[in-house]
Amino acid sequence: MSDDAPARTTLAPEEADALDAHWRAANYLAVGQIYLMANALLREPLRPEHIKPRLLGHWGTSPGLNLVHTHLNRVIKARDLDALCVWGPGHGGPAVLANSWLEGSYSEVYPDISRDAPGMEALFRQFSFPGGVPSHVAPETPGSIHEGGELGYSLAHAYGAALDNPELLVACVIGDGEAETGPLAGSWHANKFLDPVNDGAVLPILHLNGYKIANPTVLARLPQDELDQLLRGYGHEPLHVTGDRPAEVHQAMAAALDRALDRIGEIQGAAREGGATERARWPVIVLRTPKGWTGPAEVDGKPVENTWRAHQVPLPGVRDDPAHLAQLEEWLRSYRPEELFDEDGRPRPEVLACVPEGSRRLGATPHANGGVLLRDLPLAPLERFAVRVDRPGASRNQPTEVLGGLIEQIMADTADRRDFRLVGPDETASNRLQAVYGATAKVWGEEILPTDEDLDRHGRVMEVLSEHLCQGWLEGYLLTGRHGLFSCYEAFVHIVDSMVNQHIKWLKTSRTLPWRAPIASLNYLLTSHVWRQDHNGFSHQDPGFIDHVLNKSPDVVRVYLPPDANTLLSVADHALRSREHVNVIVAGKNAAFDWLSLEEARAHCARGVGIWDWAGTERTGDVPDVVLACAGDVPTLEVLAAASLLRTELPELAVRVVNIVDLARLMPHEEHPHGMKDAEYDALFPPEKPVILAYHGYPWLIHRLAYRRRGHGNLHVRGYKEMGTTTTPFDMVVRNDLDRYRLVMDVIDRVPGLAVRAAVVRQRMEDVRTRHHDWIRAHGTDLPEVADWSWSD
After folding, report:
1. What is the DSSP string of 478-545?
2. What is the β-pairing status of strands 201-208 and 168-175?
3. Residue 731: pLDDT above 50?
4. Is there a contact between 707 and 671 (Cβ–Cβ < 8 Å)?
5. What integer is the mean pLDDT of 427-435?
6. Can you give the pTM of this predicted structure?
7. Measured between alpha carbons, how far apart are the two ends of the chain, in Å?
8. How many CB atoms sit inside 10 A of residue 150's CB?
9. Cα(263)–Cα(348) distance, rounded to whole angstroms?
């Protein structure tokens, strides 16, 4: 026992015995899931045919997780707490499944896995078995909001769940392997953004069992005083629970939880009733128990318990090695299952004495099935925010600034219900969304100086220079039944590539589970994009997040490239109303031409792709000579400028202009629900005609999306090809061959017979590009005919 363990003992002998019975039952069930497919209650001697042919799962962390679950049950029941637990060592799936089966929540969502002997055998058999459930805590697990397969995100998820949930306690078990990751290290700072008045509490439980899969862990080997200094530096007060004797650990864990919850109550009371504003030092429990606790001490003469060998399957040769089989049976019987389960295989009353009732059970909390708590977001009519467009290109606006008015109104309309958050890494004003500060400030729990602006302890805009933390907060917030938007520089959203992978997988799996209610979509607004990095240059130029997302489940992912302010409003309105999607919206923040009225924008966005007949020169009923297509705001500008040049230089040419808002429309209908059927695609892009497509990102993505189309051989794509620097806006498109003059040259090169007839025009286009090169180096600005260009019918 640690000298820093809480001194008072809180458990009477009969309560301690009941807790130990529950813990032993959970341990038995965890081992059974890894090994057994029959003879679940050991009613006969264990034989090889009772053992699974493939032994998969993680034992090492499971006894510690079972201890936490057991003791959380006690305090939830005793204090009538509204609680959720995030299981960072999510590979300890056997433990969380075992506890949800014990409490009955598992059988409620899966009636065929009943809480009796046949149900126990089914529970064991399905684990890591074909047609069964994963070895990790997953969407299939009642009470979970956290996959845990990829480590590093548990604490951020926990804080996201606590935001705007003032009565909720979120316990978060952090594995010591996970604690070595960068995202987790950054997440310790989330307590500086927690509002004790309007938010719930997060209780981190740092589980130090000493080892990862094959190595010791850093924090477990730190001297205790150094670890305490680290945790206190993060703003926490550590409470230590250390030991390997169950009776002593039960007492210490109960005392630590009571002390932690008392302290949380004091902090919240001081802020809510006493008006305290200084940031409090929140408790953290440091739990040190052996890896693989209560499992085999040695196997084949080598130490296992309290070593890395206990991480996964301590006895790997059970079907083939009689000694291993005997050792497994001895291990299972050490939990005395006959004391824990009755003749029908049901948990005995003393095992369930600590279990809360109804929705207080960790596996039944509605906060882990956030869709049941979700309310529709109040969205004001877009007419209040739309810009007036009398004719295409007659005015300019900053699209994200226009969107900022809508976000401000959402913040105002959710001020009382507090279920919408805007997150981003230090970029809200930079991305022109500063109107939101008219309704709420940025939350900030540290000292606020007179020179600071838009900071408040109760704000709902969250800025921290960690994309991981922003993503984790928002995921936890959405998964517990709320709404939000993540605004980020386009190049740096890549930092959360792995996190969005996990969230997409979670949503894909959740769609197959009828008991999981749909949650609000994860919405990205990517701006400060590749084509306008005037301050930053090459390091800030990467449009590849689109490629990354479109590789994922087509049922979940959506990518939108609105070309102006009104289409951005329409797309945002759709995304914020949607459920169970990941919506990626890429839009500029700089002043840009307004092309469509709100009514036109709505119709265009509903189609996802469409002909802008006012921009082309094709006649009704005729087949165009060439299609100029565009996806993205800057490509749209360059295509329209190219169309204008073609109208002047080659008036006899029939040019069709097509704008793409929903990028998945290019995919076959069989591959994506938004994809076009072949007939529809061929009508827009006649297979025998050249198509010049100007695209916001990497051009090869478009070829991948459209490779099965009949006209793919006539498709020529211009886009970003890693030619970046700090330069003028137009020089960026010239460097990447996306400019209007290059597009005109592409048309001349690809329309049959035009190369000879329009050789002079092509030469003039090339000459302008040369003149541009010299001009910007002499003047530092774009050519006047580019800088002053406007659309004219």
Report:
1. HHTT-EEEEEEEGGGGGGGHHHHHHHHHHHHHHTT-TTSPPPBPEEEEEES-TT--TTT-GGG---TH
2. parallel
3. yes
4. no
5. 93
6. 0.96
7. 82
8. 16
9. 34
